[in-house]
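Here is one chain, start to finish.
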Amino acid sequence: MSAVDRASAGDRLAGIGDAALGLVDRCGRFALLAGATVRAARRRRFPWRECVRQLASIGVGSASIVLLTALFTGMVMALQTGIALERFGAKLYVGGVVGLALARELGPILTALMVGGRVGAGISAEIGAMQVTEQVDAIRSLGADPVQKLVLPRVVAATLALPLLTAMANVLGIIGGMLIALSQFGITANFYMENVVWAVTLQDVLSGLAKTFAFGWIIAMVGCFMGFETTGGTVGVGRATTTAVVVASITVLVADFFLTKLLLAL
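Its structure:
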């Protein structure tokens, strides 16, 4: 190996090392922010009013896109499942398959991804704009805690909104599947719903909803963290917003796997 090749290999290794150290550093700062959020929740004067305002913004504001996604997901699931089961003479059981898939997996994960794209970007852009215009520093100079004023309400609101949105998405997804079962396969509404009730147990519903608390926390925390990390003016705000959506989506998918394994083991 020539000296030039050795130098090039050394540069690549140095770049990998710098990237790894940067990732560890960011994870450490994220953990510090999460710990500060927990400490802020235990202080006096809990920001209930701001939590309610954020809950309305996150929950009501995201309801339309979540419910529309759930409706067409249920319809597509029923159509694809019905065609597949029809080959084996089992199309009557399409309701159970659609209900079980929505309750355990599709409802929670699609709701989290839709809310993550909308809310994660919004939180990151809002706090990022405050960061680059020094409004966060102004909050500190007034003796207030930016974590308690900005992070805590958004984390609480997202953590509570995700289960509610998921429950509504499950219902509307099942209704969408029923519409396809009625029009495409001639299955009556009563038989479809009886099949859903027979296949989907309370444990299935609760296991799906339990994961959404973690998803809501991840989305809000990632959005807030990327907002506080914003530098570089308006260009930095756009970059932080894009990064927040990507990181939140990937983290939700990874967390979904481990949470599913954990819940199945219980």
